[in-house]
Amino acid sequence: MKADLHVHSRYSTRPSYWILQKLGCSESYVEPKTVYDIARQKGMRFVTITDHNTLAGSLEIAHLPGAFVSEEITTYFPDNGCKIHVLAYDITERQHEDITRARTSIYDLAAYLNREAITHVVAHPLFAVNDRLTADQFEQLLLMFSNFELNGTRDNYQNTILLDILTHLTAEQISALADKHGIQPAGKIPWKKSLTGGSDDHSGFHVARTFTLVEKEGDLSDFLAAVNAGQSRVCGNDYHPKMLAHALYSIAYQFYNQKFGLDRFRQKDRFVGFIDGVLGGPRPAPQPPDRRPDSGGNPPSDGKKRRDRSMEKALSGFCLQTAREVLENLPAYHRVRDGGPLSTQEKISHCHDFVDQAADEILARLCNTTMEQLSSGNIFNVFQMIGAGGALYTMLAPYFIAYKVFTKDRMLCKSISDRIRGVPLIRKRVRAGHFTDTLHDINGVARTLRKQSEMAALLNKEMILITCGPEEKRPGFKTFAPIDTFTMPEYSELKLYYPPLLKMIDYCFEQDINRIHIATPGPVGLAALAIARILQLPTYGTYHTSFPQYVRQITGDDGLEGMTWKYMIWFYSQMDMVFVPSRATGEELAGRGISPEKIRFYQRGVDTACFHPDKRNGFYRRRFNLTDDCLKLMYAGRVSKEKNLDQLVAIIRELSARIPNVCLIVVGDGPYQDEMKRLVRDLPVMFTGYLDGKDLSEAYAGCDLFVFPSTTDTFGNVVLEAQASGLPVIVTDQGGPGENMIDGETGFIVPAGDIAAFLEKIIRLADDPALLARMKKNARSYMETRSFESAFEQQWNLYHEPVPGCDGLKAAYFNN
After folding, report:
1. Which residues pair with 85 in a beta bridge?
2. Is 492 helix (H, G, I), strand (E, B) or coil?
3. Which pLDDT value is given to residue 292?
4. Category of 102 on φ-ψ map: left (φ > 0), alpha (ψ -120 to 50) or beta
5. CA–CA separation, 300 vs 304, rounded Å?
6. Which residue of 496, 510, 638, 673 has the fewest C-beta atoms within 10 A of its own C-beta?
7. What pLDDT is stored for residue 24 in this prediction?
8. Strand partners, 484
9. Rounded to 5 degrees, what are φ and ψ at 289?
10. Counting beta carbons within 10 angstroms of the beta carbon of residue 684, is it exposed (0 to 12), middle (13 to 18) or buried (19 or more)?
């Protein structure tokens, strides 16, 4: 015998989710007879509708075969107002009145239901209806109730944990809980619990998706007796956030359809036709005119016409226009609009595809417009896009809510399970999603991330590098195709890739990512921040690059630098922890407003096998015909203005006049290279272009001295690589590089912008071969203590630290 025991009709007296309140929807709009017909068609022998605190829905079908009267009761724990939903089956109207009086206290309600021998079930017992459910209260539910529901529209994770708890209960546990809470356990064998299943459907798409099965035949009383005796089992399919989001869209559409009669535009408007096709739900039977005076079939009043015109005007904006254009290219569009038969799963899929593609297109247009306005200096015009951004958020809100609800449920479920079982049921192994905008670029950040990915695989750590751009199929990488690309005017080779947000959210949810690490504050970093908020994950950020200083040096605009600082401080303030590669960087961020308790210093490492003095093997003699006795100064990194390379031009000009056999080697590429080549065309300067692998190792080892005039580097990987290759380094006293060498031992620190000081140190080393040799040896020895493996382990261990300000539930989920 099958029964669908938990269905909602259009008479539901409370909003299904808070978004429906925002939309003005307080009901579900599926007719009771339609619900009944669907359930019977799916093989349900018994059907009931459990509306909240009313019998109205089940009374409408009570005269039909196999239907019976029930309700879903909202009751409360008196101490904190925690809401619990209890299903009461096969009740009378008198009992409903008694229940209404008793339901203000769950203790009174449970006593009444047991006294009246009413079959009752705790609905979705691990779902915190109003976010007040505690482990103590769940323990009391185990004592007061014998029947529990596996809910058809909850996360399978929740149902699995509930099933695990209930099937492993022991007499000793129940006895201990009874002593703890002073409650007499219900049932003849109180540690043996019965299970029911119900669809808990508010949209009409999931009626009888989950149901209760009793093997032996009989009438309704036999069926309910079997439930009470623990002889029932639950059948059905898993639920997913995409399904919940689709249900939210559907309920909202059905509300507006009933209010405005939108389906009459189905044949006239392609947008309405498609939406009605994927969200329209089961069609109710025709109703008498006086029952639903606002239905689309009645002649609209003047006020209704005005509402229609007002609505049409509101829907004619930016987002709707873009959505209409997206429809033209949607493969399922014509089939849906033409009314072809669609399964529920197809409707969910088509709805998701449409929202996903429309959101991507809207986001791309918003981002491009914003970047164009910023690039042209029209800063205040950017605020005009805020309204469209808000409309985009509203469009995506059901998906955001769905994923957030599932994640929050998982946190609560795990914390309660750990309490009941006494030990953690599932230990959360760290699985980090490391997001970056710059994996495909040629810079120190990209090289570091790639090396970290290799080290994670070597050390059996679960880290996935997540980015957006040209596809790169490598283990440990996940590259999303960008929805669009913006090329920076000042750097034609530097591109911003706009990420597909919904796809990224779903990927992180499905992959069970439980740490979000953000390497860059660009579009991918912003997407990662949104994902962390939606999935309620601990968020870590690394401050790799001094973007505000870069902006000032590139544009010469102090105002833009100030705006960039405001953005950076806002962005990194959203993190639970901020990793900084130098103490100077940490002090700067703290001084500008980042909470000091969030800042964590971690020391980066270097691949001491790849970068080694033994790699010196005549690289420059073979490539550039330079003699071995030439004093070779090296710069490696991005060839751009913000690295102060104009100072290197002045330095080599002066040196070449004072030292007969000297050469500057520039390794790298960038927007300043052509201009720099023009400035040094008569000087001993060699440009190697971008090098990596064996060529880069040999290029380092073949030089004598490393010069790095940058003041904007938060760390400077190249400074470590140079020292590991046996090169003394000369760096400025600003930024992180000075913390990654020993002044006077492995090189020198000079005042920023002081060309004379640079010259003095270079000439001193050139004139003292013994000092140069000693510093080369010291540089290599110092780097041998800075292996990449130990540095990576240090950073990974930070993921296990308690997150500052993390609440107890979140901490319990992530920190065991």
Report:
1. 74
2. coil
3. 36
4. alpha
5. 5
6. 510
7. 44
8. 498
9. -55, -35
10. buried
